[in-house]
Amino acid sequence: QKEVEQNSGPLSVPEGAIASLNCTYSDRGSQSFFWYRQYSGKSPELIMSIYSNGDKEDGRFTAQLNKASQYVSLLIRDSQPSDSATYLCAVNTYNQGGKLIFGQGTELSVKP
Amino acid sequence: ETGVTQTPRHLVMGMTNKKSLKCEQHLGHNAMYWYKQSAKKPLELMFVYNFKEQTENNSVPSRFSPECPNSSHLFLHLHTLQPEDSALYLCASSQTQGTNYGYTFGSGTRLTVV
């Protein structure tokens, strides 16, 4: 089992729709969870962090965490073509010395 | 300069060459990381330095040799690489290893081994 799993996509949504990106992780001791956005040819950029069960909202982005199910998601409301990118889920594995482990990323395409 | 700066942005090297990648962070962080990103694969952690001390070597071949002279600078020395080492090499930093606050990445070095 991969430590952090994401559906690689591509996920295609129309402009204005809600994009839903999902991530599961295997280390039950993980306490910090992050979403990074990576445009083609660019480096990852941190867009959301979440530490407690429930929802965390920041503008059009909402991160959701369910530690019991070992599941974290990112919702993007009112998706724009500029949101087209690869979204990386990252988990801080304290049980392995506190390092970020990344999923393979989900490619999102927002169609005008 | 702010953030995390990597040089060079692009590098083409032969299998017998020796080259070095440089990373510098201006964030006052104490932990620095090297990641490798190949097409269609997750980011792979290579090395971790915390307060200048190497704390992790993720079974990286010896043809990759890291150096961390201080908390602001990180190098990756390359020699006798293979074509499969072609990838995007990303440097990142964080307040300390195990921080709750995520990592800041540099722009990366796109390496091509010919």
What is the β-strand count of chain A? 11
Mean pLDDT of chain B: 93
Oligomer: heterodimer
How many strands in all of chain B? 11
- Uncertain segments of chain A are none
**Shape by Cα distribution of chain A:** globular
Q: Average pLDDT across residues of chain A?
A: 92
Question: Strand pairing plus helix content of chain A: what structural class?
Answer: mainly beta
Figure out the total of helices of chain A.
0
Strand content of chain A: over 45%
What are the defining features of this structure?
heterodimer; A: 112 residues; mainly beta; six-stranded mixed sheet; five-stranded antiparallel sheet; globular; B: 114 residues; seven-stranded mixed sheet; four-stranded antiparallel sheet; 11 strands; 0% helix; 56% strand
Written description of the protein model:
The complex is a heterodimer of chains A (112) and B (114). With 112 residues, chain A is mostly beta strands. Chain A has strands at residues 4-6, 11-14, 19-25, 32-38, 45-50, 54-58, 61-66, 71-76, 85-93, 99-102, 106-111. Chain A has no helices and eleven strands. The radius of gyration of chain A is 13 Å and the shape is globular. Chain B is mainly β and 114 residues long. Chain B has no helices and eleven strands. Chain B has strands spanning 4-7, 10-13, 18-25, 31-37, 44-50, 53-57, 64-70, 73-79, 87-94, 104-105, 109-113. Chain B is globular and about 40 Å long. Classes of the chains: A mainly beta (112), B mainly beta (114). At the A-B interface, strand 5, strand 9 and strand 10 of A face strand 10 of B.
Task: Describe the protein's topology.
The complex is a heterodimer of chains A (112) and B (114).
Chain A: E1 4-6, E2 11-14, E3 19-25, E4 32-38, E5 45-50, E6 54-58, E7 61-66, E8 71-76, E9 85-93, E10 99-102, E11 106-111
Chain B: E1 4-7, E2 10-13, E3 18-25, E4 31-37, E5 44-50, E6 53-57, E7 64-70, E8 73-79, E9 87-94, E10 104-105, E11 109-113
Parallel strand pairs in B: 2-11
Antiparallel strand pairs in B: 1-3, 3-8, 4-5, 4-9, 5-6, 7-8, 9-10, 9-11
